[in-house]
Amino acid sequence: MRVLEIVAGAAALAGFVQADVPQLPVPKTCSGVGQITYAHTTSPGWSAMKIAGNLKQVRTIVWDPLGNMLVSEATKGISVHTFGADGCINSSKALISNVQLNHGLAITPDGKTLYVSSETRAWQYSYDPATRTVSGEKIVVNGMASGIHSTRNLLVVPSQPNMVLLQVGSNANIDTASANKATGRAIIKIFDMSKVPASGYNYNTDGEVFGYGLRNEIGFTADPNGMIWGVENSGDDLTRTNNGQRQDIHKDNPSEKLNFLGDPLKTRDVWYGYPTCWTVWDPTPFGTMKTGSQFVLAPNATANDASCASVTPPRLSFQAHSAPIWNTFDANATNMYVTFHGSWDRQPPTGFKVVQIPFTKLANGQYDPVAPPDSMTGYKDIFSAQDPTRCTANGLTQSNCFRLTAAAWDPAGRGLFVGSDNSREGEIYLLSPTA
Ligand SMILES: *[C@@H]1O[C@H](CO)[C@@H](O)[C@H](O)[C@H]1NC(C)=O
Ligand SMILES: *[C@@H]1O[C@H](CO)[C@@H](O)[C@H](O)[C@H]1NC(C)=O
Ligand SMILES: *[C@@H]1O[C@H](CO)[C@@H](O)[C@H](O)[C@H]1NC(C)=O
């Protein structure tokens, strides 16, 4: 299948051309919304307020071209929210009711088409931003495998909106079968939505492979050049066996990852290492290896760390067990922001925060993190549970702390919207630069 038929004219890059959206003030509080439920710390230079509550588990936030906010609420569906002149929500309604929806939500740059996903399917809808209504429901992808990782992230390629990226995570902590791309797991595929067969695509047999060996790439976003950056949740409970000696390395390894996934119009079939090669966070157990290096769990003469040379390593590493869920750039890609859902596989717990990754534009025009790939300090907290080491994680959505998910930079200039899918209450917080 030849998928790349460039749509005439360069479409505006979603999230970077926002001239039509009126700018809004940062509210101090919003009537009827209340305070952020959980004890938190906001870093100097930022303010934080709760802008929406009483939602189901918030997973994804996207904006339509009029600045309306569309929210994916796991086990409920998609809601849409408008804002008043004070910057607060002034109307909310259900847009799509479907208890199977659990994360994925994407919109074309013209705002006319939505994509949503469940564990096994993706649907397309026509959307009208003026009336905030959908029509023309259509199943576009079927047959995604179920498994321990149930969310299926979606992204419309901004410069070619008929192309849609759709991700499936692994079916186990170490899913050896996923090394075979035909399993359709630990993978991101790309589908041409202008040619969907009447019964929808089959995930495993149709589409093209964008990247694989991605254990669970829950969030990905485009930079202003249209290059894709994804965040990956890596393994739990890892041990390393060297010369017959088995060592528990799980507390601070492997790293969670920020992957540069490349150009969705050109890049195909790149291997990111899973389930064979893992990334060093804390180099202490690894001799001379550095943060960002690749390792295998049980090196021997034929299969060892050097065998990972064909892996595309992450561009930046995060603390093990942070559980990054979503990433987004600010208005001119000066920084990326990542939400950390927080851990169960580490004592003391970690995560439960939003971090900022400073970016730079290189001489060749590419966007790139300021920190080198072996850095352990390439990002900093801007908003955090007051004491992440005391946050519980009973199941995926229960905690005495927020469980941060969605991250979306506001086209109306108020700052960063972040979601929480704590099952007690779905909340959305607004983090605003004060400087
Ligand atoms: C919300 O506020 C906007 C902007 O002031 C206004 O155009 C719209 O009519 C308001 N909607 C409701 C339901 O109050
Ligand atoms: C080396 O490790 C690989 C991967 O675990 C395994 O398949 C292979 O049998 C091992 N080789 C030897 C000689 O033990
Ligand atoms: C990016 O935007 C910020 C905030 O509007 C501004 O302070 C900064 O100068 C901009 N940077 C560039 C490179 O345009």
From TrEMBL:
UniProt keyword terms in alphabetical order: Signal
Superkingdom to which the source organism belongs: Eukaryota
Pfam families from the UniProt entry: TrAA12
Pyrroloquinoline quinone-dependent pyranose dehydrogenase beta-propeller domain ranges (all copies): 42-432
Taxonomic path: Eukaryota, Fungi, Dikarya, Ascomycota, Pezizomycotina
Name of the protein in its database record: Pyrroloquinoline quinone-dependent pyranose dehydrogenase beta-propeller domain-containing protein
Signal peptide from the UniProt entry: 1-19
Annotated source species: Phialemonium thermophilum
InterPro entries associated with the record: 6-blade_b-propeller_TolB-like, Beta-prop_PDH, Quinoprot_gluc/sorb_DH_b-prop
